[in-house]
Amino acid sequence: MKGVNDALQLEQVNRRFGDRQVLTDVTFEVGAGRMTGFVGANGAGKTTTMRIILGVLAADSGTVSWCGAPLTRDDRRRVGYMPEERGLYPKMSVREQLIYLGRLHGLSADRVRRNAADLLDRLGLGERADDPLQQLSLGNQQRAQIAAALVHDPVLLVLDEPFSGLDPLAVDVVVGVLRERTAAGVPVLFSSHQLDVVERLCDDLVIIAAGQIRAAGTRSELRASFAQPRYEIRVDGDAGWLRDQDGVALLDLDGDRAVFDLDPATDEQSALHAALSRGPVRAFGPVVPSLAEIFREVTR
Ligand SMILES: Nc1ncnc2c1ncn2[C@@H]1O[C@H](COP(=O)(O)OP(=O)(O)OP(=O)(O)O)[C@@H](O)[C@H]1O
Q1: Ligand 1 pocket, 43 CB below 6 A?
Q2: Which secondary structure element, helix H or strand E, spans residue 29, and what is its range?
Q3: CA-closest residue to ligand 1 atom 12
């Protein structure tokens, strides 16, 4: 039987709305135990892709498979989904809803009570558990939505913007809870516009623009493949002499600190030697591109 430790794969998924192609040959994988960030501008196709994974929406062509076989209705019952439109009842208490959802997914009454209590506690909702959802702050409602996606011990998680509206401490709490799931082998796909959060917590990244996957891979693979021959240096005194150094294109100069690119014929050791011949070098190293820079590069 399929279960945790199995990857989710999308292959050549296409979808149109009317005469508008919104997904074109979308192909990527969410590996077992991998926290996979799904990023793209507004309207890029993230929610549509997630809805297709969940079967809420059909693809025009292409496949969604899990453990090498198409994802079935039964499989989908074991997925934890946090939809963009959210889905809890405003008038029902958080605890009641979690118990209801867990029972709907076939968990025993005992098990679901324990799972609900544990999640409420972990997510800092213990004291508000018996209040109607609508009386909670927006951040706490968001935590409740996360609890709802997790209460039935899902073997795959698909979360549409799980961190939106959460303060930094709440983000850390939710990350801690999700990390427990990935440690148990659960593949997690989450979309987010908060690139700093994605950068900090995802293992893998999928970048989509205008319905096409523009880049996918581990965080470090992507950083390495988008790395420029770019360096940062800090010297004693003014670093302005770098302007006239052969093979160096100065990008930023701030007194004793400079960022520069090297042309392909110049290696970084000769730049370092040149700097040392002028005095002490306090810091020198490659500049690794941030996710925000990679995102701008691949989506422009
Ligand atoms: N039911 C629909 N009918 C027609 N067009 C739709 C429908 N759902 C989505 N679209 C269009 O498909 C495109 C992709 O939308 P989608 O919601 O998947 O993007 P997204 O990446 O999730 O955006 P956001 O970050 O703003 O949530 C958009 O242009 C959107 O207007």
Answers
A1: yes
A2: strand 20-30
A3: 22
pTM given for the model: 0.87
Strands 79-82 vs 156-159: parallel, antiparallel or unpaired: parallel
pLDDT 10s digits, 186-197: 999 999 988 888
| pLDDT tens sequence across 214-258 | 999 998 888 888 878 899 999 999 999 999 998 999 999 999 999
Alpha helices (H) in the chain, listed in sequence order: 46-54, 73-77, 94-104, 109-122, 138-150, 168-183, 195-201, 219-226, 268-276, 291-299
Is the shortest distance between the CB of 17 and ligand 1 below 6 Å? Answer: yes
56 lines ligand 1 (CB under 6 A): no
* Ligand 1 centroid to residue 47 C-alpha, Å: 7
CA distances from 178 to 83, 149, 184, 236 (A): 16, 11, 10, 45
Rounded Cα distance between 150 and 169, Å, is 19
Cα 74 to ligand 1 centre (Å): 27
What ipTM is given for this predicted complex?
0.96
**Rounded Cα distance, 287 and 50, in Å:** 34
CA angle in degrees (0–180, nearest 5) for 42-157-179: 100
Nearest residue (by CA) to ligand 1, atom 26, is: 42
> CA–CA separation, 159 vs 188, rounded Å?
8
